[in-house]
Amino acid sequence: MLPQMFVLSLLILATSSADLLQNADFESPPTNLPKRMRPPFLLSTENNIFPGWTFEGKVMYVTADETISLPSNGHAVLLGEDGKINQTFITNADYMHYVLSFTISPDGQNCSAGDVVVSAPDSNGVFSLKQHYGKEVWQSYGHYLGSWDKEEPVNLVFQSQTAEFNSSPICPPVIDKLLLKSMPKPVQDNENLLLNGGFEYGPEFLNKSTEGILIDQAPSPVQSPLLEWSVLGTVKYIDSNHFFVPQGKAAIEIVSGVSTGIQMAATLVEGSTYNLEYMLGDANNSCVEDFVVEAQAGSTGQNFTLPSHGTGSAKKFSMKFKADSSVTPISFMSYKKSQTKDGVLCGPVVDDVVLRNHGFKPYMQWKFLVSLYLLAILNVQ
Ligand SMILES: *[C@@H]1O[C@H](CO)[C@@H](O)[C@H](O)[C@H]1NC(C)=O
Ligand SMILES: *[C@@H]1O[C@H](CO)[C@@H](O)[C@H](O)[C@H]1NC(C)=O
Ligand SMILES: *[C@@H]1O[C@H](CO)[C@@H](O)[C@H](O)[C@H]1NC(C)=O
Ligand SMILES: *[C@@H]1O[C@H](CO)[C@@H](O)[C@H](O)[C@H]1NC(C)=O
Ligand SMILES: *[C@@H]1O[C@H](CO)[C@@H](O)[C@H](O)[C@H]1NC(C)=O
Ligand SMILES: [Ca+2]
Fold this sequence. Notes:
The protein is mainly β. It is built from two helices and 26 strands. The chain has a six-stranded antiparallel sheet, with no helix packed on it.
């Protein structure tokens, strides 16, 4: 039981850092807003102070209405021509990974939002509003900001990339609902050689949103909002409050279709045989399809099929392989585009990826670890 308690106590460290950011939902209005005028309000550096934020260029304070739809019908910030806002937060713990969730909406009904650049001292991401990835007009994204020690100032900047909004298909982006999460490096438990195989370390979910969080292409597993995994194409990070999730509180839905998935690099013993196990399922989001997921470990690959009725189900699959090298890439890919009847992109759910030495017996390993622990205690005394 000891290792389990250890893992649990470390998991508790993976806390949301919502209060690191001030006015992260933009509900504290700028000062000196005109009393009897309806929003949107154009902010000016001479007249307005925006709690928590510095702004530059064309920035407007907006309210959800017929043209702007927001996750919780409150207020948000529109980034017009050269519009930019920034805030500096101070990191609060040693060596933590910081991952941001935020939403983008278009300022209008029949247009798509212009690009938003999100930057921090060591990272930079460009986001455009993706259509058909959810039922809402807005969309939430997850973004890796960086890893820092305690008490470092981090300047977080949101910037509109479009210099002019004269053509109607592209309208200014509106951003809202920033959620900052700090996480330690995932811990290895003795039953799984992979870190974050259950996908519990990822961007924060919006409380009430049924939309999940989109994760765009993240080529490097060390700069990914899904800790330890790189992302190819676009995947959706889904929560157990709003989707069917095979294990724990979160899983990955491979949504973008052609050559999309996740990959990680496992450090293995060359020539040894391993067993890769995972759950394949559907998110209970009306995605009716014969899902095919290709699991690949080094040069060993296999396609697994799961017929989905879209009502929430999962099945465990496994694959045996021999490590061809000490660093073995392990991936789960989907090559097919699937859609619900309403035209929302959807796909197979992958969760609970477990890698073990072939022939490994968890019980024996436990006993071994406990006796090691006891030995250590005896040695200390
Ligand atoms: C915004 O960034 C500028 C530097 O570009 C900095 O001087 C300013 O303090 C930042 N504002 C906040 C609120 O962190
Ligand atoms: C958006 O498009 C719909 C149909 O395509 C149209 O009925 C509506 O008037 C348009 N709205 C605006 C604000 O242009
Ligand atoms: C989630 O919702 C509850 C109740 O509506 C609220 O008290 C809490 O602050 C919310 N948490 C976040 C992170 O938004
Ligand atoms: C799995 O299926 C895809 C698409 O049909 C194919 O390209 C790929 O080679 C298959 N992978 C394996 C390991 O058979
Ligand atoms: C799927 O969602 C429906 C509600 O939309 C719920 O009643 C049902 O229990 C869910 N199924 C699973 C397997 O979670
Ligand atoms: Ca999980």
